[in-house]
Design a protein that fits this description.
alpha+beta; Beta-lactamase; nine-stranded antiparallel beta sheet; 23 strands
Amino acid sequence: MNLAALDKTIRQLMRKRNTPGLSISVIKDGETAYSKGFGCRNLKQQLPMTSDTLLGIGSITKSFTAFAIVKLQERELLSLDDSAAKYLDFEPFKSRPEITIKHMLSHSSGVPSLDAGMLSFSYTFNDFSRIYPASSRADFEAHLADAGDFILFKPGEKFFYNNDMYTCLGFIVEALSGISFEQFVRQEILQPLGMKRAVLTRDDFDKDPDSNGMTGYLFESENGRAVAKESEMPMDGYLHAPGGLYVSTNEMLNYAQCLLNKGEFNGQQLLTSESVSQLFSGAISTPYGESENPQYGLGWSIEESSEKMPYVVIHHGGGMGTSNSFLILVPALNLAVCAVENAGTGITPLICRAVVSTAMGQNPEETLEDFKIARALDEIEGTYKSAYNMYSLTVLRKAGVLQVDMETDDGSFSFPLIPSDIENLEFSVYSLRANSKTKVVFYRNKDSQKVEYAAYDRFLYRR
């Protein structure tokens, strides 16, 4: 697998997104194929990011929680088909015994996100615009119980990504194991996998023996520009089970290899192959994926094979504000990729998919749609003028949305553009009418091949 071009791709994406630092590690056929850090783990001190830097993987932690639950099932302490009310004596579970542990793991309980445990995010970032009583365990349970009017769907009917359900799964782990969730994960998963530096608490993070932990960054707007600001990082509270793990990408390869090996690592069977199959079996349709009908399993998103991607792809991402992560497994290629950044610029999924594309012998910049879209947007942004400079059409990005500000003989308008044929630079104009046929189409100069023209309605604009 030739990853020589990957360095340049990562640097280009980091420059474009202002990403402070990024760590990536790749395992192929049981061997580390690529492991590297880019940029800084701390900008002010100019400390380099490495593949051994502890980084917040956010919601990838949910896969560890699912791992813990199926481990308890193997010990016959629970069944995935058990009613959650058997272990959680509070609402919404008490009056809805049909909600099972499997529903909670697959975000198919029918309970929408209530954010009982997410206050630590806001408070960590000095955002006190939302204040509600959910800090103690009793408050947490009451917050869930008070929201019955927002539960409209039966279990299995609707996908609602729900961090609180995973916090509750952590309660189940604690109740059945007799130890804290953090202790159970460390004892039963991290230590057997040789993930010696991985931590779930702030205290352990600060005690890292290598003193190689991330500094988190949030972006604030200053004079119209997004500026990175050093920030405290979300930890502890009710984040442990849904998103609290801090780990290096190098150690994440041990976890990935165990899963690719169907539960075995260094001769030890941490999970049975049947349990791993359960983790990777789709339970409900989810928007998190690029296949025609991606599924959410137990702590994982699953994309079935297709003509475009002939292999099953299993993945999960995570976002903590001060970090962004992605872990992707392709069992048929015996390949896993983990990338984490110390900000929220969102480049990790694209980088991981670029590695998969490279492993398939492809050029990711030619095959991945995100690269095609980025290239097209770079080509078309700017201001165009109609004949005799009578009217202008400006293409720009605002808050991540492609927008046109334009003048015509009917007046001035602003509206988002929606890609309809990115290869031919054709965009639909946003409209409340589902069948609107209005387009903005860009054309290249026949000689230079540079985009110079934009056509809208009766006008042709030139840049």
